[in-house]
Amino acid sequence: MKKLINKTFSGIIEIARGMFTIGKHAFRPAITLEYPEKKQVFNSRIRGRLALTTNKDGELNCIGCMSCTKVCPCGDLIQIETSKGENNKPVINKFTIDIGRCIFCGNCTQVCPKDAIIMTEEYELADYSRESLVFDIDKLKISPEKSDQRLKQRERDN
Amino acid sequence: MHELYMELFNKLGIPEIFGEITWPIIPFVCVAALLIIVVLFLVLMERKVLAWLTIRKGPNRVGPFGFFQTIADAIKLLIKEDIMSKDTNKILFTLAPMIVFAPIMVIYGLMPFTEKFVAINLAAGLFLVFALSSLTTVGIVLAGWASNNKYSLLGGMRSAAQAISYEIPLIISVLSIAVISETLNLSDIVDAQSGGISYNILLNWNIFSWNIWPAFIGFIVFFICSIAEVNRIPFDLPEAESELVSGYNTEYSGMKFALFFLAEYSALFIISVLMVTLFMGGYLSPFNGYLSNILFQNIIHNQIILNIFVHFEQAFWLLAKTYFVILIIMWIRATLPRLRADQLMTFSWKFLLPLSLLNLTIVAIVKYLLNTGNI
Hints:
Helix content of chain A is 33%, strand content 15%. By secondary structure, chain A is of the alpha+beta class. Chain A has a domain at 50-157: Alpha-Beta Plaits, CATH 3.30.70. In chain A, strands 2-3-5 form a three-stranded antiparallel β-sheet. In chain A, strands 1-4 form a two-stranded antiparallel sheet. In chain A, strand 2 (78-84) and strand 3 form a beta hairpin. Chain A is elongated and about 100 Å long. Chain A starts with a helix and ends with a helix. Chain B is built from 14 helices and no strands. In chain B, helix 3 (25-53) packs across helix 13 (303-335). Chain B is globular and about 65 Å long. By secondary structure, chain B is an all-alpha fold. Chains A and B meet through helix 1 of A and helix 3 and helix 13 of B.
């Protein structure tokens, strides 16, 4: 009998403590992030959408070495076609990345000798068809200022 | 009221027989509308309160502060496909949600929401309320059986076991209320709680003559058992998500599922109203007399209009107390984990039943001494 009464009172105290803890939560601001209106601030090391950097003249940094295509684990995800321009300088005719199949491993950015292909913060890539997820040069290219800023961030954080 | 209604028919030139036919339907329509509004609000409140207690935001997309979320959900449920799998018992499967829902609707009619707003005022109202609320379990067992699904069946069986073990302490604790107020009529039980304990200035407040004070142990037993009665956490074994998918309503979809959902939340509301009616003075204000009498008697001199104000105030007090009780039940839901089946049984038979008998004994002795004038 004495044991039962002790157990009852300790049970009541434990439940009251639990309820008090939960009650305290009511006065805390919600930790919910209301996504489409507010967005999370990411570290610059986030592996988002791939992009091609440009130099100050607005030309691609890519030299067409094909390292990224070789290191890519997804087969023919990156497709590059080059031709020789003046002074044997390579001209990129075609550079497509099928983002729909990309696994965002970041191997291509690590292997690139000229930092021509980098990863951006962009992660909202949903689209209505698979064809529209195959990005070409126009979609992949980012402005010189942005590529500069992005590369500096990468230098600082890595 | 009846004469007024008939006069309306006479003036419009409609035969009086239609008036006679439609007159009994009016309380039903009122009760049905009340039930649906209550449930629509309660579902939103539950989601908001739970979000609030678990540091989230809750629904806030549909309408201002998410007020129309439940309306959107209800419309979604109504236009959904009604799926019935091949091996179900078709008749019982269709009948089960109705059997669950119908008794709860009748109980709504029995409740004294204000002094006049009682659709069915019976001498043995309290008795009928408990008779009907046990009928719900039959529907749940039927749903579990007719679904032809092992999870549903287990949920139904658990519900039956739970109802048998929790209804006994529940009813014994209610018995003490019948002893105190010497009646089974719910309106009379409420009236018996008015008046305070003395004629002194503060002691004549109604709050001191609520049944919760003489039958405090009974109130605690009733509170725990009523949570078990409406199958809520920590006693939600019939629909334990992590063990039984969704228990007895696993196979249900669309309109039939909506009926179960409606029944569940209206049962939560009605059990809280019952708790308030039996233990916390029902529609009576906790003070001495009604506030609107004190506040408006110098402004409004028409007694009829003042009575209307008093009516609304009674409804306000009832709803305020009810939602306070519901808030605590939701708070408990946010705090406690689910009990194991054997813990549930042990708790009921070895703890709550002796406690409710102790309460009945205490109340009976106190009542006897009061009646014989020994105190």
